[in-house]
Amino acid sequence: MSAPHVLVTGASRGIGLAIAERLLHDGASVTLAARSSDSMSEFRARVGVSEARCRMVQIDLSRSQDFDDLVAAVEEPGQRLDGVVHAAGTQLRKPAIEVGEEELIRLLRIHLVVPYLLSTAVARSQIAGGRGGSHVFIASLGSSIAIPNASPYTAAKSGVMGVVRSLAVELAPHGIRANAVAPGYVRTDLTADLLSSSDQRERILGRTPLGRLGQPREVAAAVSFLLGGDSSFVTGEVLRVDGGWLSA
């Protein structure tokens, strides 16, 4: 059996980059989709893989796209997609009463609309080709609880779980699975501003049973599990990688 081919969005930094590295380590062929081609080129050189195994697509997912065309461009002959990981993300920290319509729509597009449209485009290709597959979404603590001063993000991440459950049920007859990984507080560019405050950092660490921040590689390990054969009977689920935050 040939190595699986997985499309990873948001692959130029943080969790997306760690996911791409883990999948390549596991033997997959990966197409990286991100806004920055420079960082992706540096990544490929660092991990020492060929262009055949680690291709790159420079794209700004915050703008309108024809996702069927994007999937067709990624799926060159012999490179059909077996999986997709939606790791692109951004953050907006301000009180809800100060959030404007454009800001809300931007967060909803990046975290909810784009993953929905891209997954359904990938699914159309997989169904047409008679192939199964695995789709992994990145959820959040905000999929389950409120995050102060992050209402657009929380709204989008709550919606992600509705998409996951719906796709899991609708696509199951085609052998396509949909799941999510929900990270807790992980040290990335998106949390750098929050963690720069010693008070906030101590609050987070004190609230996390394991007493530390997560690492992107730990989220990547969970994603790898959900993409692989060991999770073949798992769909419509969320795997929390939060150090016990939601259990406490």
Automatic annotation (TrEMBL):
The keyword Oxidoreductase applies. The keyword Thylakoid does not apply. Keywords: Oxidoreductase. GO terms for molecular function: oxidoreductase activity. SUPFAM superfamilies: NAD(P)-binding Rossmann-fold domains. InterPro entries: NAD(P)-bd_dom_sf, Sc_DH/Rdtase_CS, SDR_fam. Pfam families: adh_short_C2. Belongs to the short-chain dehydrogenases/reductases (SDR) family. This is SDR family oxidoreductase.
